[in-house]
Amino acid sequence: MNPNDEKKAPKYADSSISDVAFRRMIIWFAIYAGLFCLGVIFVVNADNLFFSQL
User: Taking the chain (54 residues) in consecutive chunks of 10 residues, what is each chunk's mean pLDDT?
Assistant: First the structure.
């Protein structure tokens, strides 16, 4: 066993996903979460406008 082996971070079984794929996953999640939040804000605002006219 080399002394360099002890300094490296341990490899895990599920670490086969690439950095590019991980970044794309984060970006797409942010897009979907942002669109969901905008949709909720739009629906709540439209609902408040509708009920304020009654």
Answer: 61 72 95 98 91 80
What percent of the chain stands above pLDDT 70?
72
Task: Give the closest residue to 21 by CA, choosing from 33, 12, 29, 13.
Answer: 29
**What pTM does this model have?**
0.60
d(CA 27, CA 25): 5
Q: Which of 20, 23, 17, 43 minimizes the C-alpha distance to 31?
A: 23
